[in-house]
Amino acid sequence: MTEKCGVVGVSLAGRSAARPLYYALYALQHRGQESAGIVTHDGFQQHSHVEMGLVGDVFGEDDLDGLAGSAGIGHVRYPTAGSVDSSCAQPFSVSFKSGSLGLSHNGNLVNADEIREELAAVGHAFTSDGDTEVIAHDLARNLLEEDLVRAVKRTMNRIHGSYSLTISHDDTVLGVRDPQGNRPLCIGKLEDGYILASESAAIDTLDGELVRDVRPGELIVLEEDGQGFDSYQLVERDHTAHCFFEHVYFARPDSVIDDTLVYEARRNLGRKLWAESGVETDVVMPVPDSGRAFASGYADAAGETTADGEPRDADDDGVEFAEGLMKNRYVGRTFIMPTQDERERAVRLKLNPIKSTVEGKTVTLIDDSIVRGTTSTQLVKLLKDSGAEAVHMRIGAPEIAAPCYMGIDMATREELIAADKSVDEIREAIDADSLAYLSTDAVADVLGKDRIDLCLGCVTGEYPYDIDGEETDRDVTRPDLEAGRTMADD
Ligand code: SF4
């Protein structure tokens, strides 16, 4: 399961935007490792540097010096729609009659093909098969007829799906979040300007202060002198569809989303996991690094009550928290391995058990999710080979049983182990002594949301968008493209 993309935009008072954007992209590198790019504007012309690779490899001193101007946007990408090549690397930039446009997109549109066909029919030439270029062309077309705010509203009335965008229109920087707020986007204040970023960790990196999340359906326009920003609530919906997996896995633990520190949310999910399905074992250990916060919350809760929910006696220390699996940080992520055989080998390269921690012990292994089941099977075997008497697996999220269409590269339905297996069948497949997942109600409770305000598509198979061949969990339909073009004045 892989992160999608990270977006950023800054507008500063007379200082070059290139380096702050570069540092912010470093902070967002976990959201995409395939390509990185920055587009700036110096008041006269647009500058762009976009390449395949990691942030540290893509930009040299000369590249940053060439990105003139105090306003700009940036992007790190893991491809989720479109080709895995430089034609889809972002920010996407284009110059047209009423100026230049740069666009960074996190998410996935559901109706990009329909809009592409419509625009191609009136003469728009596309250079990539990605959905970001579709947004850029639609916006460019609307900007020929409308002012900036109304042009963005028109485009929002036509595109359907998941998107957090940072946009540069000449030296004006904008941020937009889709009407259901599927992907995160926040605003931060810097010493001499403002920043829009996928996660608040990027704001911290620049010694800035988190102002707030961009609201679903909201357009933020940063003032060109870096003194403030304007807000326009362009579209409103009854319910949000925040991706619950941002809190569980994708976002950095040190980021704040919806006023909650992600690390704290994960610890609280771990506490719930103990309350729902705690099992008394000698040690609790995380799968590094994804299970660490969950395991710490789980072990904390286990120190307070027994698995039956009774308060512990004063002389009962509960369950010991231990790091029993050591990670080799110099091995690539498992998703880079294209075949099952290579993925299996990669797990063994990545994690090594500490024998003395597990030998002769009953172990609870905590992770955030099970996708294909490959890693869990390997880890249970590793621990048993190292002398564990029993291995119980606890997962800090519900079963992943369906694919994601909103920009997460998760695996196909056929590859997902929970798509056609019961919890007990999965337990058997991974050879654990017991297995339990966290309930969806517990997730909603910890995140302080009603279930209908979360996207749980990959768990329930019911999505918050109108996707071909899939069920929805709410009253939602794709926009009428023609009507969307005339609705900007509403
Ligand atoms: S389907 Fe799952 S991963 Fe995709 S946006 Fe929804 S909750 Fe997030």
TrEMBL record:
Known Pfam families for this protein? GATase_6
- Record field: catalytic activity: 5-phospho-beta-D-ribosylamine + L-glutamate + diphosphate = 5-phospho-alpha-D-ribose 1-diphosphate + L-glutamine + H2O
Tell me a Gene Ontology molecular-function term this record carries: amidophosphoribosyltransferase activity
The UniProt annotation places Mg(2+) binding at 290, 367-368
Q: Where is the composition biased (Basic and acidic residues)?
A: 474-490
- CDD domains annotated for this entry? GPATase_N, PRTases_typeI
Against SUPFAM superfamilies, the record matches this protein to: N-terminal nucleophile aminohydrolases (Ntn hydrolases), PRTase-like
Q: Which cofactor does it need?
A: [4Fe-4S] cluster; Mg(2+)
The broad enzyme category this protein falls into is transferase
For region Disordered, the annotated ranges are 467-490
Chain's role: Catalyzes the formation of phosphoribosylamine from phosphoribosylpyrophosphate (PRPP) and glutamine.
Family to which the UniProt record says this protein belongs? In the C-terminal section; belongs to the purine/pyrimidine phosphoribosyltransferase family.
Protein name per the record: Amidophosphoribosyltransferase
Q: What is the lineage of its organism?
A: Archaea, Methanobacteriati, Methanobacteriota, Stenosarchaea group, Halobacteria
